Amino acid sequence: MNPKIYVACLASYNNGKLYGKWIDANQDVDALQVEISVLLKASPEPFAEEWAVHDYEDFGEIHLSEWPDLARVSALAGLLEEHGEAFSLWYCNQDGNNIDVDQLEDIFQEQNNGIFESKEAFADYILESTGMLDALPEWAKIYFNYEAYARDLELSGDYSFIRHASQIYVFSNH
Description:
By secondary structure, this protein is α+β, with helices and mostly antiparallel strands. It is built from 8 helices and 6 strands, in the order E-H-E-H-E-H-H-H-E-H-H-H-E-E. The strands form 2 sheets. It has a 3-stranded antiparallel β-sheet. Strands 4-6-5 form a 3-stranded antiparallel β-sheet, with helices on both faces. The longest helix has 14 residues, at 70-83. It is rod-shaped and about 80 Å long. It starts with a strand and ends with a strand.
């Protein structure tokens, strides 16, 4: 992913001119502000001071407002480039808008359980990695109902399963 924002000069926009530019969002806040300042100084309208984000791309399922917090835009872009679609899906599913920018990566890392082919594959992974079925004899393990266990994991509220692009993204909810 290569997140970008289209920043428009509002002085131009309000005078019937479309003037703006695409800016790479994966920069620190100061660099974003410098690019916006350069844009406004080069505006065809004198004394241009106000700007808005009129479009964006490669933010996955995440929606930005016209006047987003640049610290959030910068953080989101970096995390999207590093973690891809998994981060986008987590952010939207776990109400990332209400998580402090400085905590986004840590909470994502804590809650991300990976990508699986099915809910049952995740249930099998949990049981294998925790050794929960080790006490059962081998012949009894084949009768375990992974589908029902996966359903219980979801219904308990402990995990969220998101189907996207024929895969299951799993996030813990605590």
